Amino acid sequence: MLKIAIPNKGRLCEETLELLRSIGLRVSGGADRTLIHHLHGGKYEVLFARAHDIPEFVEIGAMDVGVTGIDMVEETQSKVDRLLDLGFGRCRLVVAVPENSPFTSVDRIPKGASVATSFPNLTRDFFARHGNAVSIVPVTGSTEIAPHIGVAELIVDLTETGSTLKKNHLKPLDTVLETHAVLVANRTALATRNSEVMEFAGALQSVLDASKRRYLMTNCPRAALDDVRRVVPGISGPTLMNLMGVEDMVAVHAVVPEDRLNEIIPRLKALGATGILVLPIERMARRACPWCMTSAPHPPADRPCGAGLPPCTRRPPGVRWPPVSLLPPA
Fold first, then answer.
1. Spatial CA neighbour of 72 closest among 147, 203, 155, 177
2. Is 148 helix (H, G, I), strand (E, B) or coil?
3. Across the strands, what pairs with 136?
4. Which domains, ranges and CATH numbers included, belong to the chain?
5. What's the rounded Cα separation, in Å, for the pair 69 and 251?
6. Packing angle, helices 194-211 and 10-22, rounded to 10
7. Beta strands in the chain (DSSP E)
8. Percent of the chain, pLDDT > 90?
9. What are the beta bridge partners of residue 177?
10. Residue 330's closest CA among 172, 199, 136, 142?
11. Torsions phi, psi of 138, nearest 5?
C-alpha cells in the first residue's frame, strides 16, 4: 500500500484533490470528510494533514509520499526527495512592513528588530545572510495584523498577489523564497519500493504534461508536408494518414504546446490545411528516469554512457539501475 499525504485545507488541498481525481483517485473533500481514505482496494492510503506536517511525516516514513509546498520543506528542513514540481500554489514568502514604516529596504532594518512569522527558520536564515540577527516572534495565523497591534515591527509571510498585504496597509520589501506545490518522497520508500512510488509519480507527471499540450488534427496538402512538419513537429514527428479517395491530401495528427496554438493554426491555414480540430489530452505518459523524473536518459550505473551523460545523482547508493517505464496505474 502506498501512503500519500495531502494538505487538509486551502487551495493546495483543492488543487491536489483535482489532480488526484485526474488519475482516478477520487477522494471526497467536503467538510465532513474522514482524515484517511483507502482507495483501489487498499492499494493507496490518502491522509489529510497540515501542509506544515507533511514533510516530517514523509521524512520519518509515516507516509511514503506527500504533496506540500517548497516553503514547508525548507522551513522544516526535512530530509525528503523532491520528485515533481506540481506547478500550482505559486506564491512568495516576503518581508513586509507597514506603509508608514521608516524601513525602505531589508538592509535598513536595525539589528534585533522584531519579526512576526510562522516561518522562523527561513526568516532567521534570510536575515542572517543579510548580517542581521532579528528577534523572531512566532505566530500561527493573522500575521498581517502583528505590526498594527504592537506585536512586531515587521512580518515575513506568504503572499500570492499582494492584495492581502495592501488591504492591511503593508508593503513588501524583499522576497525570502518563491514557492509552489511539490511531490516529496521518503528516501527509504524511494529506494526499496521504487516501482510503487514512481508509478504514482509517473501518473501525476502524465497529467501535468498533458495539461500543457493539445492534440491537433487537420487535413493538409501532400505537397506541403515538409512545411507542415516544421510547423507541427509533434513529439517524434506528426502522424500521417491517407484519406480515402483523396490522393493530394493527408490527415495530420500531432501533439502541440497549448501556448503555441494561436500561432500554429494560422500557419497551417496558410499552407492549405482544412478541418483543423484541437482536442484536450487527459494523460501523456513518457519514459523517464525513475529517480529524478527527467525525460533525458541516464546510463546504467554499472557501465559508461556512450552519449557522455553521467549517471543520475539521485540514485540511492548500492541500488542497480532499474529500467522503469512510467505508465499510469491501471
1. 177
2. helix
3. 115
4. 2-88+181-209 (3.40.190.10), 91-178 (3.40.190.10), 214-280 (3.30.70.120)
5. 44
6. 100
7. 2-7, 36-39, 44-49, 65-69, 81-85, 91-98, 114-117, 135-138, 154-159, 170-179, 181-185, 213-221, 239-243, 246-257, 274-280
8. 65
9. 93
10. 199
11. -70, 130
Question: C-alpha grid cell for residue 114?
Answer: 522584531
- With 0-12 / 13-18 / 19 or more C-beta atoms within 10 angstroms meaning exposed / middle / buried, residue 216 is buried
* Residue listed under C-alpha cell 512592513: 97
Place of cell 493546495: 12
Q: Give the CA-trace dihedral at 126, 55, 87, 50, to 10 degrees.
A: -100
pTM above 0.70, yes or no: yes
| Residue pointed to by grid coordinates 506568504 | 158
264 near 273, Cβ under 8 Å?
Answer: no
CA distance 290 to 302: 16
Torsion on CA atoms 267, 235, 239, 250, rounded to nearest 10:
10
Query: How far is 285 from 199, CA to CA, in rounded Å?
Result: 11
Distance CA 73, CA 53 (A): 9
Can you tell me whether residue 162 is helix, strand or coil? coil
pLDDT of residue 169: 93
pLDDT of residue 321: 43
Contact 74, 59 (CB under 8 A): no
Please check whether residue 216 is in contact with residue 257, taking contact to mean a CB–CB distance below 8 angstroms.
no
CA 3 – CA 66 distance, rounded (Å): 8
- The yes-or-no verdict on residue 288 having pLDDT over 90 is no
Looking at residues 309-322, what average pLDDT do you find? 53
- Contact by Cβ (8 Å): 96, 171: yes
CA distance 174 to 228: 47
Question: Of 310 and 19, which is predicted with more confidence?
Answer: 19
